[in-house]
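Quick log. Single chain, no ligands specified.
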Amino acid sequence: MCSGGFAKCLGISLMPLSIICVLCNILLFFPGGKSVDSDHITLQVWYFGGILGSGVLMIFPALVFLGLKNNDCCGCCGNESCGRRFAMLSSILFAAVGVVGAGYSVIVSAVAINQGPQCVVNATTNQWEYPFLNGDYLSNKTAWDSCKEPPNVVSWHLSLFSVLLVMGLIQMALCAVQVVNGLLGALCGDCCGCCGGSDGAV
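-> predicted structure:
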């Protein structure tokens, strides 16, 4: 498979991951599937790790990767091979943007998982707190009972942020692969050649 075709596969893989991350971040605004006051939404949700980091910032690299296979840039004085090499080299910059975006989402998700959700700890006074600040609830499921409301808020919080964490790591890996692929494409040329279907000139 040529470097442009491989980049397109990476772009196709990144698109659904970005959509999943955006949806997870949106769902986190409804802890336990319930609508609550904005002050009672876990702080890390407002950092938009899934919407901004693994979502918007990942769309740009994905679109660039998708377009590399059909790139017919004849850049350097009409030399198509040179134009394709420049396109592969520029894709490295977009891959770096993707790594930064996904890394941001991973960090936000890791902090959120360690801190735990904000929830009602006293149903009588409707007192909202973060009862799991040291992350001990991860290995002690009975501690989840400290959250009285919203229902199932701990599993909701943990599940969605875990998905964001895993998706972010996958996105980082795919973008890192494109960095290597882009370097190979820039140095060695596109093995599939161009316009006439012949092998690309070096």
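The longest helix spans residues 80-115.
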